[in-house]
Structures are given as structure tokens and as C-alpha cells.
Amino acid sequence: MLDRSQFLKEVKNKDPHLGMLLDGIFDQIDTAFNHLGVSTKGLVTPPTPLQALNIAAGSDHVHVTLTDNSQVSKNIEYFLEYATEPTFANPHVEHLGASRGKVLPLPAKTGLGVTQNYYFRAYSQYAGSNPQTKKIYYGTLGSPTAVTLSGSSSLTLLPSTGSGTGAADGSQGGSGLGVVLQRPAPGPKRSAAPKVT
Q1: Total structural domains in the chain?
Q2: Backbone angles phi, psi at 105, to 5 degrees
Q3: What is the CATH number for 80?
Q4: How far is residue 39's CA from residue 34's CA, in Å, rounded to a whole number?
Q5: The overall pTM is greater than 0.85
Q6: pLDDT(195) > 60
């Protein structure tokens, strides 16, 4: 909410109509920001951590649901991450938006025909907050439960490219929409060749 206490009383005393107009504008801005989940004073508090992550595995699909019985605002956004290794070094990110569930098609095997294990975690975020740092894991943080599909589909997944303002190489899992307002473009990987004159 905008802090109008510093000057609005003085404006109303000098010009009541202008004061009423400004008061109405402030109310409309505050309402819009509340609906968007943002604040003029900086970051809003992240949502409360999720209570559970539920997985049902099929042949080439998983059905994921999130349990969130906390008080939430209507602008909450949920994120699901999956990886083929339990450390989540470069997880793939699924932005669920306001939904707490999704059926996700995944290949049961790598491109070489090797059965693939998947690991899952989830978290939430408001547009004006950082992501919730306490992720919910299918299993536990130290020992996520592997999910194996029974189908015959095969595909070697491409490397993750992350989400939001997180690193473009997928190395900053758990970023959601991002933890920084703007991510600069990656710089050159090597120095430019000297100019020939």
C-alpha cells in the first residue's frame, strides 16, 4: 500500500477536492497492487510452504498434485521441478500458474533405451515476492523418492534452461519467476579478437 499519511492530510486541508481525488487514486492503486501481489514498498512476503507433493506414475505420464491448505491470495503461482538426478542440479521447471495439479508426459527411457528415474519438488511464489525457499519434495530433501515410469517411450531430455530471471543454463533451480528483477544478457564466453588495422 502506498504511504499517503505524510502529505494527504495537508492536501485535504488546503484543497478538499484535490485531497478526495488523490485519496481515491491511492485506493485504486492499492487495490490493483493487492490483486497483482506486488507492493510499492518492495518485496511481498512469499507464500507459506506447501504441505505435500503427490505423484501417481503411469506408463509415460505422471499426475502431480500439490497440497496447499494455507491462506493464500488469488495471485499465487505454483512451480513444479523435475530432474533425473536427486540433487536437482539442473531441474526442468513447470509453471503451473494458479493450478495445483498437472498431468505431465515424460519419457520412460532415455534415447538409448535405459529406464529413467525422475525426482520432483514444488514451491510457490507471488509476482512481487521471491520464491518460497522451503521446497516440498516427493520423498524428503535429503532423500527424494525416485519415480520410474513403465512405458516404452524414449527421449534423452535436453538440458534445462531454467525459469524467470534464473540463470539461462538451468543451474539455478528453485528460481520460479526469479529472485532478481532483471537478469542481464550473458556476456561473451571469450574475449573478442583484436581488431586488425
Answers
A1: 2
A2: -75, 130
A3: 2.60.40.10
A4: 7
A5: no
A6: yes
Span 56-77, pLDDT tens digits: 999 999 999 999 999 999 999 9
Both 76 and 108 in one domain: the answer is: yes
Q: Which domain holds residue 122?
A: 52-148
What sign for the dihedral angle of Cα 67, 70, 74, 75? negative
Ramachandran area for residue 51 (φ above 0: left; ψ -120 to 50: alpha; else beta): alpha
Instruction: Answer whether 57's CB lies under 8 Å from 98's CB.
Output: no
Q: Confirm if 129 and 175 have CB atoms less than 8 A apart.
A: no
C-alpha 95/C-alpha 107 separation (Å) is 19
Spatial CA neighbour of 72 closest among 37, 30, 39? 37
Between CA 58 and CA 107 the distance in angstroms is: 11
Which residues have CB under 8 Å from 73's CB, separation 6+? 34, 37, 47, 126
pLDDT of residue 91: 97
Same-domain pairing of 66 and 126: yes
What stretch of H or E contains 62?
Answer: strand 61-67
Which residues lie across from 63 on neighbouring strands? 56, 103
Please give the pLDDT value at position 45: 92
